[in-house]
Design goal:
Number of strands: 0
Oligomer: single chain
Structural class: mainly alpha
Radius of gyration: 25 Å
Strand content: under 5%
Order of helices and strands: HHHH
Number of helices: 4
């Protein structure tokens, strides 16, 4: 099994209500065992170490699944932009822009949105100001 498939499988199972319930039961069992161990340092160390290791590993799992989901969304959006005749083809590679260029582009699209609210366009018309970045 590939790492990405394993992460996806683990992510699907980690997000289930039954997994949460299992975690709550384990914590309750640990808390209930406190009197038998006289609430000593080893008893506390067990839960601290376990949760630290699980949290550390979950960070990588979450990052992997987020990256995969992000890539999938980008491919789908790129296809929608490509398939839409009136869309600006230059927005297909926004990943190459720096933060200032992206911020400028967002401002232009917000301005276009404000204009649309004030005066609705016909579907066949192109907006006057082209928000596509200069290349």
């Amino acid at each position: 099994m590939k790492f990405a498939q394993f992460c996806q499988w683990l992510s699907n199972h980690a997000g289930k209500p039954s997994t949460f319930l299992i975690a709550v039961v384990l914590i309750a069992m640990w808390a209930a065992s406190g009197p038998w161990f006289h609430f000593n340092d080893t008893w506390q160390l067990i839960v601290n170490t376990s949760t630290t290791i699980i949290t550390f590993l979950m960070v990588f799992l979450i990052q992997n699944t987020q990256n995969r989901d992000n890539d999938i969304i980008h491919v789908k959006l790129d296809e929608l932009i490509r398939a839409t005749q009136s869309a600006h083809q230059s927005v297909l590679d926004l990943e190459d822009l720096d933060n200032q260029q992206i911020h400028k582009l967002r401002k232009q699209y917000r301005a276009m949105g404000s204009q649309c609210e004030a005066q609705p366009e016909k579907p066949d018309e192109q907006p006057e100001n082209d928000p596509a970045p200069d290349r």
